Batch of 2 targets.
Target 1
Amino acid sequence: MTLGTHGAVGAAIVGSAVVHPAIALLLAFFSHFVLDALPHYDYKILSLDKLAEKNGVVKMLGGKLFYFDLLRIGFDGLVGLVLAWFVWQVAGAEVGLLWVLLGAVLGMLPDFLQFLYGKIGTGPLAIIQWFHNRTHTKYKLADKFELGVISQATLIIFVFIGLAMI
């Protein structure tokens, strides 16, 4: 899933005010793994070390590709925050904007930790990386950009409607 989708869903969970905001923040974080279990489109991270990846290790190379990936990931994260703001505005969330934005950030956080693990590669991040890999679907819509965008937009809409009905 893209960060925009993870951010929008995390924000919607917190903004729905179905449970206490602190519990909603935990749900926003764990929603990331649930969403990644679904078949979906991910854009390619160009600075991944392909040799390390074949051995099941996430390792990032440096250089221009790394900075290009950083820009793309940053833009994608910004989309997630904009969608969170949109959720807060349209849904009339009963919690403050800061809570909703925090829900978006926590919804996106596992991918950032995965990216960080690719640079550091040890410590507690290894446990999160292991869990992330275990829950992530093996079926990807790799070369199906249009289907990926449509399916993720549809998913966001269904989550918004579902949470609004609660």
Target 2
Amino acid sequence: MAYVVTKPCIGIKDRSCCEVCPVDCFYDIKKKSYNDQFGNPAKGEDTGLLVISPDECINCGACETECPVEAIFEDTGVPDEWKEFIKLNEVETSGLSDANLDALRCTSKVGK
């Protein structure tokens, strides 16, 4: 099991979740296509969304309570209308090299 970032994060990317993650499994995906697809306008650095690597998430739940827009769910509890985000979180982080993962890793609000 892992936690999943869903639609409310698009265009927001508050990063409070990243600050409490003990394993730094959040990645900043800056794809305007997600803003366009899911209807949240892109605003500079807030383009796209954060995702959680299911391979790295330890299922501690710390991020879920910190998310101010309630975008994070355990994969088994994602609302039906956002189920596609389970695969989106996985696809965006799988198959990337360590260097690419390091470049996308989000650890705090610093350097936003």
